[in-house]
Design brief:
InterPro entries: ARM-like, ARM-type_fold, HEAT, HEAT_type_2, PP2A_Regulatory_Subunit_A. The protein is mainly α. Helix content is 69%, strand content 4%. It has a three-stranded antiparallel β-sheet. The two termini are 32 Å apart.
Length: 270
């Protein structure tokens, strides 16, 4: 029964946490019994079971309960198979979504070597605009996961493609995550490549794209500032904030934090 398998998946994370806390008594139980079930249910015929498995996997990764060897030898190969060009449409959409969500939880080496090539392929998927939309909405997170060198070498060309996509929703998603992409690049790339690209979005024929670009204008401009002097920084939740000076902290030590959130790169993309 799919409902039984779904319920089982929802119980996996708390069981895994218990096993981790009681590791001397159950040193290999999670890796031998539970992890294979989670991986197998990623390809279950029932979409609710797959969704529960995906959610369980993300919780396990967030809690750092999955061994690096299992990530590289079990999880990533399954996701690469599900996101292959000849994969079923529904499976492909789910796979690219989970790849984007888990990228921030994996090591940079794993993401760059195992997942980044497939992500770049999916950005150019001509069959499903939903796949390209997910890639565009999560582009900033992938850039942050792989760093400046891989972003400029592999991702920026794909970002240009998505920014000129025939589907306006794709261009809007790119405008919404523009600040996060810009923040990952060098000042020269920001000036010579991303600035003209942003101008094209702010002059787009679709008013929804233009509106999203104008909302991202301030955050994009802020990426040109020197963080040490401007006090701007990107928080872990993807928001651009202002770090209070030492003088402000001392004078307002009894007051709530005065960090000012200017723009969320992920909230609008969702």
């Amino acid at each position: 029964e799919p409902t039984v398998r779904t319920e089982l998946m929802e119980q996996i994370p708390p069981i895994a946490i218990f096993l981790q806390e009681s590791r001397p008594k159950f040193p290999t139980a999670f890796f031998e019994y539970l992890m294979p079930i989670v991986v197998r249910y990623l390809t279950d015929v029932n979409n609710q079971v797959r969704k529960a498995s995906q959610e369980a996997l993300l919780i396990l990764l967030e809690q750092d309960l999955v061994a690096q060897s299992d990530i590289e030898n079990k999880v990533c190969p399954i996701l690469l198979d599900l996101s292959a060009p000849d994969s079923d449409d529904e499976y492909k959409v789910e796979a690219v979504n989970i790849i984007c969500k888990m990228a921030s939880m994996l090591s940079r080496t794993t993401v760059e070597h195992m997942l980044l090539p497939r992500f770049c392929e999916l950005c150019s998927d001509g069959k499903l605009f939903q796949v390209r939309k997910i890639c565009a909405a999560n582009f900033g997170d992938i850039c942050n996961a792989v760093g400046q060198e891989a972003t400029e070498r592999l991702l920026i060309p794909k970002f240009f493609e998505l920014c000129s996509d025939s589907v306006w929703g794709m261009r809007k998603a790119c405008a919404e995550c523009f600040m996060a992409v810009s923040y990952t690049t060098s000042p020269e790339v920001r000036r010579s490549k991303l600035s003209p690209l942003f101008i094209s979005l702010i002059s787009d024929t679709c008013r929804w794209v233009r509106q999203a670009a104008f909302q991202s204008l301030g955050p994009f401009i802020s990426t040109f500032a020197n963080p040490s002097s401007a006090g701007l920084y990107i928080r872990e939740d993807g928001t651009l904030s202002i770090r209070p000076s030492a003088q402000d902290v001392n004078s307002n030590s009894c007051q709530p934090s005065n960090n000012i959130t200017l723009m969320s790169s992920s909230a609008n993309a969702a």
